[in-house]
Specification:
Strand content: under 5%
Oligomer: single chain
Helix content: over 70%
Radius of gyration: 21 Å
Structural class: mainly alpha
Distance between the termini: 9 Å
Strand order of the largest sheet: 1-2-3
Amino acid sequence: MTAVVTGIDALQYFIPEFILGITGFAILAAGMFGSSRKVNASITFVSLAASFVYTLTMFNHPVYVLSSTFLLDNFGLYFMLLFLAAGMLITFPAIINISAKSEIFFSLLLFTTVGMIIAASSSNLIVLFVSFEAVSTGTYVMTAFHKTERTLEASTKYFFTGAVSTSIIVLGISYFYEATGTFYLSPSPAIISSGAMLVSLILLVIGFGFKLAIFPMHQWAIDTYDGSENSVSAFLSTGSKLVAFMIMLRVFVSGFYGDANDFYIIFTLLAIVTMTYGNFSALSETNLKRLLAYSSVAQAGYLILVFSAAGYAIGISDTNLMEYAVAAGMIYSLVYIFMKGGAFLAMNLSSTKKVDVSDLSGLNKKSPAAALSLSILLLSLAGIPFTGGFLGKFFLFLALIEVKLWWLAVIAILNSAVSVFYYLRVILVMYRGEPSENIKVSSLGVIPLVVCAAAVIILGVYFALFSTVLGFVGGLFR
């Protein structure tokens, strides 16, 4: 039973937002008196950690807040934790390259995270849109933070692509309202499929497809990830991308429950071409950040397999299999934070702006811990057993098999096999040859990699986590 909370009592459910928002303004104020970047980073990390701990206390007590505009359920709270973790992951590594006006960068990180966690708890399309645009606006500025030619080019491409996708999303929302007469998301089979709903579905897939970097709406991500500061690239490829994925779960699985067959077909086609394009493009790439960017496109293809499985399961009226598919996507999202975020943070091990694969040559001789950690992260991205990436793909592919989409699972497995080649190429370079002159080893560069690798290994053997996450999916059906 989901309680309904109104009035002043509702404020207690927004404590994490208050913590982050107030801290963000405090860091800006402290910057007027010359606060150091290490102090700003420490305060940012503590506020994110405090919000993380408070969010943990909110589990298992689902409530509707502010006239059902917000739904604080385990599904949304789970993603809130992921977004807070993504922010904590990049906080200290950002110190390496963020020096001047660090108070602006860290306050932006906090304000952007506020938008993320608001989106996680919203069940209204208007609030989802506004909070998502708050995230986009913050990341536009973070991408351009250094104001160099590369970062400004990356931010400009990101901004104009974001502006186009925003207009498409608004149009899609208007058609959704035309068909349903509401902006609230409700998993009701009573909503009959109509022409307006189909148009809304297509427009929202295109709009959010840009945000998630699904082929063919992906090219901005390659240039933006490559041109951004390393910690920003890590944040864009994890937190920002997973916000889009979470919103898509809310919107398509709940709002288009009656159009499951349509989004099953659309997402199946998009998943196949996105996985295949991302993996084969990465095979010939020598720029390491662009290689990881193409890998990120391929990972988006794996993520949207959730919609193929969920849509097919809803179409055959099997809610249990639908929940299984969504839970698999949630597990993969958790692992993705560490394996993809850590891989992008590994760019801090090179002193060059454009990191080539050869720049990590002989890394094992300079820092065995960094080489081993990055190897674990890359193997996890490839889905090698005993890593979190394998666990995530195992449940994801099993979900496809359970709904009789075994042929789609085979295509996904073959794509994973292709990815092994370019990940192994990077690993071999780190363990062969003499150390490159461009290698730059520091504690802030190595420690985050070790933490991410440890998390990936732990998640790779923690099979019991799936049953816990499976219990969180019910929030999509209240």
